Amino acid sequence: MPISHRGNAPDNATLIGFTNLRQARTTRPMVIEKGRGIFLIDENGREYIEGTSSFYSAALGFSDPELVEAAVRQMHQLPAYASGLYRTVPAALALGEKLAAMAPMANARVTFGSTGSEANDFLIKFMRFRNGHRGEPKRVKIIARALSYHGATVTTAPLGGFPGTARAFNLPMDEVITVSQPDYVNAALPGESEAEFSARMLAEIEQAIEQAGPATVGAMILDPVSFSAGCVVPPVGYLPGLRGLLDRYGVLLFDDEVINGFCRTGSMFAAQTFGFRPDCMTLAKALSAAYFPISAIVMDGDFYDALERGSDEEGIFSHAATYGGHPVAAAVALRTIEIIEERDLLGHVRRVGPRLLKHLASLDGHPMVFNTRGVGLGGAVQLHSLPDNVGARGRAMQDAMMAEGLLLRVVKDSINFAPPLIITEAEVDELFARFTRALAAVERTERT
């Protein structure tokens, strides 16, 4: 029987995140009831294009029957079992082998969680275990870039230094080193080239390591393209130079591919798009096309070997998660990867992505547009901010886009695009037709 709660609820019992809680409790939220392809339908029958894949995760859209069938098959065979104590399930073993073979690192090993937040949290926990058993117990500090997002746990939420988050939730910040987001468009000095800007960003990181004490810094975590900061694409020389810098100080490089991974940037992983070597990667979202919660930590052989040596010393590696390697999640994720390969979704992204980027570039020179940027099948339109009212235009665009049947993520005055990988060229055209109508509506309102 379908679930339905129509009508205006005067007091919603469900806490909805990223909202004002009082407003969310007393105002009925948008309730999405159905999905087909890149489209969503709300409880009133209104259709929307989901242009950022529902938190950048629904890579195969909202109605892929093969993923549903994969879940149902596994539900019938074995619906639940926890991996641990020398026990696991076939789907988890097969998925681990598949990801290890795909990973752009040597002798990779894989373990699982349920969310991207959990994967990043677990990885930091593993780093502390590794460093302690290597005789470097003080190497616990993590470098993160301002306005990047790596999760919602006590450990991961402070990473990225979102203004007010650590203060509001009273989170520990002593072991977090926040450095600048390498946003060349918004942060370059007058006349500064991309290469010069990258060199300045790297110098800042080196200074931060020195100031913190090199023997206390364990890793740097980054999302290669930072959608949470408004789709910031790394400038020339930044990522290759960063790898060399961190190596000199013995600092690990953690690649958060939770959003970037699985074709979004035009390669299977962003590490391949931008040509750098991570020590570990975290994966989620598109790993199962969001049809079932699952995440993964992929470690290179050297990192894993240190865990194994520590396990020998302790007699056990005291870590597991009830839903890590869940049989249904693993089966859906494995089928997702197979579909990506069978349907050549990477080739599709490389064919359709240029159309999205062309539409973005067509808005350069618009009186309301400050900048457009993108890579693969993702991008952003940054609007000129109103004087003394940063984010006002973004909020106005949010309302105007919804009125046009378009859901996109707004970051202050930047609007992010990251549609499901299955989007067609005709659907890209329709997405931008709705976007430009919304932009025109906001422009008209400002003139009146």
How would you sum up this structure, described in words?
- By secondary structure, the protein is an alpha/beta fold.
- The protein has two domains: 146 residues, Aspartate Aminotransferase, domain 1; 275 residues, Aspartate Aminotransferase, domain 2 (3-Layer(aba) Sandwich).
- The protein has 15 helices and 15 strands.
- A seven-stranded mixed beta sheet has the order 4-10-9-8-7-5-6, sandwiched between helices. The protein has a four-stranded mixed beta sheet with strand order 1-2-3-13. A four-stranded antiparallel beta sheet has the order 11-12-15-14, with helices on one face.
- The model has no long low-confidence stretch (mean pLDDT 96).
Annotation keywords:
15% strand; alpha/beta; 448 residues; Aspartate Aminotransferase, domain 2; Aspartate Aminotransferase, domain 1; single chain; seven-stranded mixed β-sheet; 15 helices; globular
User: What is the chain-wise order of helices and strands?
Assistant: HEEEHHHEHEHEHHEHEHEEHHHEEHEEEH
So, the CATH homologous superfamily of the largest domain?
A: Type I PLP-dependent aspartate aminotransferase-like (Major domain)
- Shape from CA axes? globular
Can you tell me the CATH topology of the largest domain? Aspartate Aminotransferase, domain 2
Counting helices, strands and paired strands, the structural category is alpha/beta
Total of DSSP H or I helical runs spanning 4+ residues: 15
Please count the beta strands (DSSP E, at least 2 residues each): 15
Give the oligomer, counting copies of the same chain as homo and different chains as hetero.
single chain
Largest sheet: 7 strands, mixed
How large, in whole angstroms, is the Cα Rg? 22 Å
